[in-house]
Automatic annotation (TrEMBL):
InterPro entries: MetI-like (IPR000515), MetI-like_sf (IPR035906)
BP terms from Gene Ontology: transmembrane transport
Location in or out of the cell: Cell membrane
Family: Belongs to the binding-protein-dependent transport system permease family.
PROSITE patterns membership: ABC_TM1
Domain of life: Bacteria
Transmembrane segment boundaries: 30-52, 194-216, 223-244, 264-285, 306-331, 367-386
Record keywords: Cell membrane, Membrane, Transmembrane, Transmembrane helix, Transport
Protein name: Carbohydrate ABC transporter permease
One Pfam family from the record: BPD_transp_1
Lipid bilayer topology: Multi-pass membrane protein
GO cellular component: plasma membrane
Length: 400
């Protein structure tokens, strides 16, 4: 141990060999950063898996998880050999040729057999005797030869079971299938047609209402605020059918066939988004400096002038925060769009179109991975454009 002079007391103080930077390390701070990194990784992990799956070959995607994307996967299959009419005569023997994989060239045959109980009875390149005569040989590339000394007479080709290996393969075929599907561009435009007005309208209405609840004095103001907060817990599903019936009744009163129009879904999303918008903006506006409002009133400014000239510019972080929420909700919505627009091809939104691409039995489910990334491109652009206002607006009015 050595001693150094303390300049404040002129007395020697003991020191150890611990560096100054080590003394500044805060264990709690390290734990916080590690926990934050863990949470970020936990949320990013599924997204990374979705991205890898969207780039995999659909045959691999059907038989193995994304974590095996860099390893060879194994799958079983079955094919039926041709009838006797496909035989040719070569060198005094009768031969039937073909490929068990058909046009699929991304597989390599490992074993094959003649029954479901023994799909790996023989290795690639070996031969198996056939009950209809002759022997069958299947190579690793799937090419087979069924050779017999006598003419084939069977009317129904036997089945061949096989075990195939699929090498790792990444492709953009899933994205091409989604983007080139008939009607996708139209549904993309429909999503914008629904989302942009359904984001702007509630913001404008909520901004006026929030200013009135924050700075104007009128009877039952506290009760109205309580009702707005209570509406935050009302399930959306409870009001869908009553709203649709009301819109249909209004539409029929004006001579229209039904209420499934863009106006109806704009108003529906506005109604569902207003409680949170009013609550968020009211809290933010109530926290603005009171002195600014009083000075403006002394100068003779009206409520409308104060609102448009002072409150709105100062409330931009809260407006941007709610815009992100509302845009994401409406863009990713399927339920409200199907209820208020139906399955009309001319008005089908992007989420509805992707569901229709799956087929009636979901046999094209592999395009969901690519479709998911197609749908999040626009929300990501909106989020990163306004992210600096997101936290500020989200926490607005939470503390005084």
């Amino acid at each position: 141990m050595t001693a150094v002079v303390d300049t404040a007391t002129d007395l020697p103080r003991p020191t150890t060999g611990t560096p100054r930077w080590a003394a500044r390390i805060d264990a709690a701070r390290i734990f916080t950063h590690v926990a934050l990194l863990f949470l970020v990784a936990l949320w990013t992990f599924p997204t990374a898996g979705l991205l890898i799956s969207s780039l995999r070959d659909k045959d691999q995607l059907a038989v193995s998880g994304w974590w095996t994307a860099l390893s060879t996967s194994s799958t079983q299959g079955v094919t039926r050999l041709p009838q006797a009419g496909a035989q040719i005569e070569a060198g005094g023997k009768f031969v039937i040729r073909g490929n068990v994989f058909g046009e699929d060239t991304n597989k390599t045959l490992a074993q094959f057999g003649l029954s479901n109980a023994e799909p790996a009875a023989a290795a690639a390149g070996e031969s198996l005797p056939m009950t209809d005569g002759g022997a069958l040989t299947v190579q690793r590339d799937g090419a087979y030869e069924w050779v017999s000394d006598t003419r084939f007479t069977h009317t129904r080709g036997p089945r061949v079971f096989y075990v195939a290996e699929i090498a790792p393969r990444f492709t953009l075929d899933n994205y091409v299938e989604v983007l080139t599907a008939n009607g996708v561009f139209r549904s993309f435009i429909n999503s914008f047609t629904v989302t942009i007005p359904a984001t702007i309208i509630p913001i404008l209405m909520a901004a006026f209402a929030a200013y009135a609840l924050a700075w104007m004095r009128f009877p039952f103001r506290g009760l109205i605020v309580a009702v707005v907060v209570g509406l935050l817990v009302v399930p959306l599903q409870m009001s869908l059918i009553p709203l649709l019936k009301m819109y249909n009744g209004i539409a029929q009163a004006f001579g229209a066939e039904d209420g499934k129009t863009y106006l109806s879904i704009w108003l529906a999303h506005t109604a569902f988004g207003l409680p949170l918008a009013i609550y968020l903006l009211r809290n933010y506006m109530a926290g603005l400096p009171k002195e600014i409002m009083e000075s403006a009133r002394i100068d003779g400014a009206s409520h409308f002038k104060i609102f448009t000239g002072m409150v709105l510019p100062l409330s931009f972080p809260a407006l941007a925060s709610f815009s992100i929420f509302q845009f994401l909700w409406v863009w990713n919505d399927l339920l409200v769009a199907m209820v208020f627009l139906g399955a009309q091809e001319s008005k089908l939104v992007l989420t509805g179109k992707l569901v229709s691409l799956l087929g009636s039995r979901g046999n094209n489910w592999e395009i969901l991975t690519a479709g998911a990334f197609v749908t999040i491109v626009v929300p990501l652009i909106v989020f990163f454009s306004l992210q600096r206002y997101f936290v500020r607006g989200l926490l607005a009015g939470s503390v005084k």
